[in-house]
């Protein structure tokens, strides 16, 4: 909190509430323009939706069918930029759409040629029709019975939580003040204009006032709650939707190709994608009445994913095969009253209240940079600041290497895990070199070493065991039981770094054990 109090008599240009993809993208944008920026997050960076995606940087093939050409074109452009600006976190991924009807291959092939055209110079590869034998060569575990052939196309894949931390570090590199575990408890108003917020430090209980020329609400599915802090009569604009994913062992999807089924029983696409040596199956689209910090998968969602994965994989997964499950909420903007969230647009919306509170809702990870640019343009006008040309389209993110140094995402090895840090990997290896105890693997089924936990505390603002095992490393998503097994060692390492006592260790283990229960297949 010291960063927020260093110049309390001099207001920040922008106070950003919310440390997910949207808020972090806005912080990078504003700080890169030279503005004084503060960002506060009530929990940890990317704790919610932004660490629970399908791990794809994509234009959105299904949005073509909805006729949303503008969204697809913008997303494809941003996909190319992110691939260039964060080469340690984003890579090309080849997808196979299997065709079980004679017409399916040509039908989807035509649409994907349009996808290629919209990507333009920032395209990742050219789509093409393939034979049955070629489809099975790319995905050996694809269901062969009735297979006619398929279509290949290209999109991007990334590590969402690692990108969020990279954005936080990038904003900090440019002078932004970022604090996690610092929720906003009320907004400040002067002459009916919003001029800041009261922020509570969850570790000390202390509350401080943070003043700013403009306040940006980028709290995702909780944006309506902040809007009601500003105006109790504000109407709700969000219709949260839950997406659930399963994590399976590598044997269900060996190789480097992903599987995409363009239409399932609920109208969504189904992905099975290789990620850090595992296979992710997702996703669902279920309307939920309220936003929760820890959404739990519904039994119907889990059954749906198991069943549909079994339809398209020759080896049918069972519940016992699932290594982890996770659920995230999408902050979809309301339109209509039919309750079909799968039909809602993923476009973002920027709202301006009478008091000057700027709220950004909707959108998706792929377009985070464009969303940040647009919301800072709007907030600059509110603050009476010059609207500058964005410097971020060509700006490399923190620790980004050259594109030809991008990692191999399939291995699930320790070297691949280290490559996620980009040039900061040298900091991790230096810790391990200085202390042989930190060279030890955390768990034989996970690709991480003990030095990464120390690095997470010292350099990446990790404050809890969950921070370290869910978002700085991805242990909880890759193997929930293995993550639980290493939690005591991680808690002790962190306690030593943070100056915490045995009571803190006990409390952290209780909290993390509860968190793991929500990541196990019931």
How would you explain this protein's 3D organization?
- The protein is an alpha+beta fold.
- It has three domains: 2-49 and 162-237 and 343-383, FAD/NAD(P)-binding domain; 74-156 and 239-336, 2-Layer Sandwich (D-Amino Acid Oxidase, Chain A, domain 2), CATH 3.30.9.10; 411-517, Alpha-glycerophosphate oxidase, cap domain (Helicase, Ruva Protein, domain 3), CATH 1.10.8.870.
- Helices cover 35% and strands 21% of the residues.
- The strands form two sheets. Strands 3, 4, 5, 6, 11, 12, 13, 14, 15 and 16 form a ten-stranded mixed β-sheet that branches. Strands 1, 2, 7, 8, 9, 10, 17 and 18 form an eight-stranded mixed β-sheet that branches.
- The two termini are 39 Å apart.
- 53% of the residues are buried.
């Amino acid at each position: 909190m010291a960063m927020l109090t260093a110049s309390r008599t001099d207001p920040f240009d922008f106070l950003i509430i919310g440390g997910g993809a949207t808020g972090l993208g806005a912080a990078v944008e504003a700080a890169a323009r030279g503005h004084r920026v503060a960002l506060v997050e009530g929990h940890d960076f990317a704790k919610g939706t932004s660490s629970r995606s399908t791990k794809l940087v994509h234009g959105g093939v299904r949005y073509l069918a909805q006729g949303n050409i503008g969204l697809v074109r913008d997303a494809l452009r941003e996909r190319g930029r992110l691939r260039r600006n964060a080469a340690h976190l984003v890579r090309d991924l080849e997808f196979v759409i299997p065709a079980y009807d004679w017409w399916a291959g040509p039908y989807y092939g035509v649409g994907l040629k349009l996808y290629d055209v919209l990507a333009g110079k920032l395209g990742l590869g050219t789509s093409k029709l393939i034979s049955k034998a070629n489809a099975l060569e790319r995905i050996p575990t694809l269901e062969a019975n009735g297979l006619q052939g398929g279509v290949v196309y290209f999109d991007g894949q990334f590590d969402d939580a690692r990108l969020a931390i990279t954005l936080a570090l990038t904003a900090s590199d440019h002078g932004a003040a970022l604090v996690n575990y610092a929720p906003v408890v009320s907004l400040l108003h002067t002459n009916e204009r919003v001029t800041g917020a009261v922020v509570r430090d969850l570790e000390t209980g202390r509350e401080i006032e943070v003043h700013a020329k403009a306040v940006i609400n980028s709290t995702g599915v909780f944006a309506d709650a902040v809007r009601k802090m500003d105006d109790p009569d504000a109407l709700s604009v969000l219709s949260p939707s839950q997406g659930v994913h399963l994590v399976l062992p590598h044997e269900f999807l060996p190789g480097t190709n992903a599987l995409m089924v363009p239409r399932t029983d609920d109208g969504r696409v189904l992905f099975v994608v290789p990620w850090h040596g595992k296979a992710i199956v997702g996703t669902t689209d279920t309307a939920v009445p309220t936003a929760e910090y820890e959404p739990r998968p519904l039994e119907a969602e889990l059954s749906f994913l198991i069943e549909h994965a079994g339809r398209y994989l020759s080896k049918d997964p069972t519940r016992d095969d699932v290594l982890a499950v996770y659920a995230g909420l999408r902050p979809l903007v309301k339109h209509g009253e039919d309750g079909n969230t799968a039909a809602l647009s993923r476009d973002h919306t920027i709202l301006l209240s009478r008091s000057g509170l700027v709220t950004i809702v909707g959108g998706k990870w792929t377009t985070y940079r464009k969303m940040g640019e647009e919301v800072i343009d709007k907030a600059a006008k509110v603050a009476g600041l010059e609207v500058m040309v964005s410097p971020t389209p060509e700006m490399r993110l923190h620790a980004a290497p050259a594109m030809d140094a991008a990692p191999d995402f399939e291995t699930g090895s320790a070297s691949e895990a280290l490559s996620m840090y980009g040039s900061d990997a040298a900091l991790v290896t230096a810790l391990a070199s200085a202390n042989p105890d930190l060279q030890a693997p955390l768990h034989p089924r996970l690709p991480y070493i003990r030095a990464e936990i120390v690095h997470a505390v010292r350099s990446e603002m990790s404050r809890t065991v969950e921070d370290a095992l869910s978002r700085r490393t991805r242990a909880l998503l890759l193997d929930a039981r293995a993550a639980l097994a290493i939690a005591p060692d991680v808690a002790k390492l962190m306690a030593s770094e943070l100056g915490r006592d045995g009571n803190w260790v006990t409390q952290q283990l209780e909290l993390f054990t509860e968190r793991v229960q929500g990541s196990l297949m019931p």
